[in-house]
Recover the amino acids of this structure.
């Protein structure tokens, strides 16, 4: 199984890029993980916000292979603690399909993206910067994979 993170937004700040690269490297032993950045829709004065969200959604969907399991990061999704995420990762592995995690733009995901998602994952009720979510997802996937491998990283 391979995983990808499809994220709206480009040019992560160095601290995010470095942290993501570190967890991606650690995770590679158990789960190859790639980042696909999608350009955000054009926003601003005189621009159609709904069109920006729709255009982002189209680019996100275009970045997905046809037979991939899709997990949209969404505040209305299911919350998992680290142990539950580990069990989900084991379940996803058992399906024998690649998996994509999706991070939307400033207003969240376009409707067509949420319709395509097989499930939704919430990181909690906090509003988080989308660039930070990249890092959190990578770390939590590493933690889940480490738990499945009986690695001592997770000490709860």
């Amino acid at each position: 199984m391979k995983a990808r993170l499809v994220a709206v937004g480009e040019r992560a700040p160095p601290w995010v890029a470095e942290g993501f690269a570190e967890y991606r490297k650690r995770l590679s032993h158990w789960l190859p993980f790639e980042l696909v950045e999608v350009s955000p829709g054009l926003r601003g004065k005189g621009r159609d916000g709904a069109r920006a969200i729709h255009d982002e959604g189209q680019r996100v969907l275009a970045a997905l292979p046809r037979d991939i399991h899709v997990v949209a990061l969404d505040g209305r999704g299911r919350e998992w603690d680290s142990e539950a995420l580990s069990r989900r990762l084991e379940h996803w592995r058992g399906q024998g399909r690649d998996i994509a995690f999706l991070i939307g733009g400033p207003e969240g995901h376009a409707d067509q993206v949420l319709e395509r998602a097989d499930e939704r994952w919430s990181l909690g009720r906090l509003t988080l910067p989308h660039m930070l979510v990249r890092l959190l997802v990578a770390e939590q996937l590493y933690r889940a994979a480490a738990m499945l491998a009986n690695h001592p990283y997770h000490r709860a």
Notes: The longest strand covers residues 69-79. Residues 130-148 form the longest helix (19 residues). The beta strands are 3-8, 33-38, 69-79, 99-103, 119-122. The CA atoms of residues 34 and 105 lie 19 Å apart.
